[in-house]
Design a protein that fits this description.
The complex is a heterodimer of chains A (266) and B (287). Chain A has helices spanning 2-27, 31-36, 48-55, 57-90, 96-105, 111-124, 131-155, 159-167, 172-183, 185-201, 204-208, 217-221, 232-259, and strands spanning 91-92, 225-226, 229-230. With 266 residues, chain A is mostly helical. Chain A has 2 domains: 1-46, no CATH class; 55-259, MetI-like fold. In chain A, helix 3 packs across helix 13 and helix 10 (185-201) runs antiparallel to helix 13. By secondary structure, chain B is mainly alpha-helical. Chain B is globular, with a radius of gyration of 23 Å. The chains are: A mainly alpha (266), B mainly alpha (287). Chains A and B meet through helix 1, helix 2, helix 4, strand 1 and helix 5 of A and strand 1, helix 1, helix 3, helix 4 and helix 5 of B.
């Protein structure tokens, strides 16, 4: 049984890693080698692709733009979702279930046609081409997800803890920050990872709401197409560099994920 | 039991305001588009429900809708069981835990257009590992010209990309099962299957519903990856619903018709998700 499990796991990880390896492999090749034939590893390894990304301002600035709106989005999503998730996990109120479902429906709008109204809305309020515009737009799908996940974690904390704290004379804000938040730290970590992930990889909204100053990395990647065709090597290198912040985030929350993504009533 | 208290609305208000800002105005704008014939911003005519009637009778919509349902069904049928199996096979302690967590989450972190690019290269029979291997095994594989191959490649790409999400959710669900349950099962000499069927699966039910809902919504709106990989071809074999919509909105600049289409699209997703959601909250009330 143990052996069979390890084999399944190894097999799946292999399935996951081969395309990733191919991406890394491509990032160290010149375009001529990529298109010239099948090579399992770079025969003439080159760092040129990475040099392009690290020295050209349009490339490294687009990384910084992405990082800035993704972290803003993470922060905003967590700040508003924490109290709301507490309300959903502890109280019943007028329209609570409808509200919860309405939040989820915001993940379901097919983007193609909604892009134009988004563009008009954010231009009208003067936020077009700023990181905060993308951060706010991404709240549309990240906030509902954050509420959903956090609500689960909060429901698994017994209600008696709240009551004891109030008897001990804690006010609500003090109790929430000093006692309650530390207890659901795993949930906050996991939520942060999911917000990061969905905001980092989103392309359509991020591209629509920015032009030059706040151009994100995902949009910059679509510009590797030039008259001479796609610059595969640079695109692959950009993809590899795009993995790194996410790896850092999952490394920080690893113990939290393993501790239990209780999702409440589970 | 939860207490009934309408003051809880104050806690939900920031979320409501924030989401409503980005949700309601664009939604109303789209509804507004959908009842007009728009030539340019100043020339537009009210046409009522004409677009809706036309869309519902459009064979292009029917074709891509059927294709979309088959695709989403396949995605769920493969990714959910596979995700559970992977989650059950994950190490429970030791150095393997962070190691496999990081490796598992790698596909989730690749920007979507790069996902398409990776599979575009790796599937080519001259320079890609998979395409080359399949062809040297004697299989005639070419995702660019054979509709069946293109379809399978898009599906495998989706499995590669998203099974990790299901696995991560299930893994953390499994971690929340107290050890005493397993001890009790051992005393009763329960088989592995019985442990899975009567302990793990019931505990996973809520996580699974979330995973199923997320995967359904996202696979039903899949756009970037097949667009980069196959461009919807060969022919229309991998032209899914959102691509038909984009062609209509941008390619033909038929804004009114596309708006009506996207509202119908939205309602279909809403309906299916509502069924999942009702099933989920129904169980809550009983438990």
């Amino acid at each position: 049984m143990r052996l069979r499990k390890s084999l399944v796991m190894l097999g799946y990880l292999l399935f996951v890693l081969v395309p990733i390896y191919w991406l890394v492999n491509m990032s160290f090749k010149s375009n001529r080698e990529i298109l010239g034939g099948l090579t399992l590893w770079p025969t003439a390894p080159t760092l040129d692709n990475y040099r392009v990304i690290l020295t050209e301002p349009t490339w490294y600035m687009s990384y910084l733009n992405s990082l800035s709106y993704v972290s803003m989005n993470m922060l905003i999503s967590l700040l508003v979702a924490l109290p709301a998730a507490y309300a959903f996990s502890r109280y019943r109120f007028l329209g609570d279930k409808h509200m919860f479902f309405w939040l989820l429906t915001n993940r379901m709008a097919p983007p193609a046609v909604f892009l134009l109204p988004f563009f008009q809305l954010y231009s009208a309020v003067g936020l077009f081409d700023t990181p905060i515009a993308v951060a706010l737009a991404h709240c549309l799908f990240n906030v509902p997800l954050a509420v959903w996940i956090l609500e689960g974690f909060m429901s698994s904390v017994p209600k008696e803890i709240d009551e004891t704290a109030y008897i001990d004379g804690y006010t609500f804000p003090k109790f929430f920050i000093r006692i309650f938040l530390p207890m659901i730290r795993p949930g906050i970590g996991v939520t942060a990872f999911f917000c990061f992930m969905f905001s980092w990889v989103e392309l359509l909204l991020a591209r629509t709401l920015t032009s030059v100053d706040a151009k994100p990395i995902v949009a910059q990647m679509t510009r590797t197409v030039s008259a001479s065709g796609i610059d595969w090597g640079v695109l692959a290198a950009a993809g590899v560099v795009a993995l790194l912040p996410g790896i850092a985030v999952i490394y920080f929350v690893r113990n939290h994920v393993a501790k239990g993504f209780a999702l409440g009533r589970v | 039991m939860k207490t009934y208290n309408n003051k809880a609305w104050w806690l939900v208000l920031p979320v409501f305001v924030l989401v409503a800002f980005s949700a309601i105005i664009p939604m109303m704008t789209v509804v507004n588009y959908s009842v007009q014939d728009i030539f340019d911003p100043s020339t537009r005519y009210f046409v009522g429900t004409e677009w809706y009637r036309e869309i519902l009778a459009d064979p292009r919509l029917h074709d891509s809708l059927v294709r979309q349902f088959i695709y989403s069904f396949c995605v769920l049928a493969i990714e959910v069981p596979l995700g559970i199996i992977v989650a059950l096979s994950m190490p429970r302690r030791g150095l393997g835990v962070p190691f496999s967590l990081i490796l598992l989450s790698l596909p989730l972190l690749v920007p979507w257009n790069v996902v398409g690019t990776i599979w575009q290269i790796i599937g080519r029979e001259d320079i890609g590992l998979y395409g080359w291997t399949l062809n040297s095994l004697g299989l005639d594989y070419n995702y660019a010209s054979n509709p069946r191959d293109a379809w399978i490649t898009v599906l495998v790409m989706d499995v590669w990309h998203w099974t990790s999400l299901v696995a991560l959710l299930c893994y953390s669900g499994l971690r929340s099962i107290p050890d005493v349950y397993y001890q009790a099962a051992r005393i009763d000499r329960a088989s592995h299957w019985a442990v899975f069927r009567f302990i793990q699966l019931p505990k996973l039910k809520n996580v699974l519903l979330i995973a199923v809902m997320l995967r359904f919504m996202d696979s039903f709106m899949i756009y970037t990856e097949p667009f980069v990989l196959t461009g919807g071809g060969p022919g229309t074999a991998t032209t899914f619903l959102s691509q038909t919509l984009t062609q209509m909105a941008l390619g033909q600049f038929d804004l009114g018709r596309a708006a009506a289409f996207s509202l119908i699209y939205f309602l279909i997703i809403l309906l299916v998700t509502w069924v999942f959601y009702t099933a989920m909250t129904h169980n809550d009330d009983k438990g």
